[in-house]
Design goal:
66% helix; 2 domains; mainly alpha; Lysozyme family protein; transmembrane
């Protein structure tokens, strides 16, 4: 059932597949207990095959990388603006606008960085679940190089 739920076509065929699996389980349990068991029913279209190519794709990590990079970049920009404001402070009045922009960039930087890292964790978790459901192994960098 875990394998079947990992397929893109689950929404279309999931109800029938669940009924078929439950029927096979009921017959198997009846036979295992020595009973004649329920009557086996044929469901039209129930013999459709599922292929690995039908599996849903795992979320991409590019979104996580871009978001985290944007957060780090915003933090660097905020630090630069803060330094400029500190250097210009003796020459003129402190600009409230620069202070607000720096504070906003710091908040945006934190949100983007944390969001990017959280999405990376989510995407890696989904990828591992799909590979496990499809009975595939995760290749490490060392295995891929060999």
């Amino acid at each position: 059932m875990v394998f079947l739920r990992a397929l893109k076509t689950w929404k279309t065929f999931g109800k029938g597949w669940t009924a078929r699996v439950n029927g096979v389980r009921a017959v198997g349990q009846a036979w295992a207990s020595g009973s004649v068991g329920p009557e086996v029913q044929y469901i039209v279209g129930g013999d459709a095959k599922a292929f690995l190519s039908d599996a849903k794709r795992a979320p991409t990590l590019a979104v996580a990388d871009a978001t985290t990079g944007g957060g780090v970049g915003s933090g660097g920009l905020a630090a630069t603006l803060q330094q400029v404001q500190d250097q210009l402070a003796p020459l003129s009045y402190s600009s409230e606008l620069i202070g607000k922009v720096v504070a906003g960039l710091i908040v945006i930087s934190a949100v983007l960085t944390i969001g990017g890292l959280a999405y990376r964790w989510y995407a890696n978790r989904r990828k591992t679940e799909r590979l496990d459901a499809l009975d595939l192994q995760v290749k490490t960098d060392a295995q891929a190089a060999a």
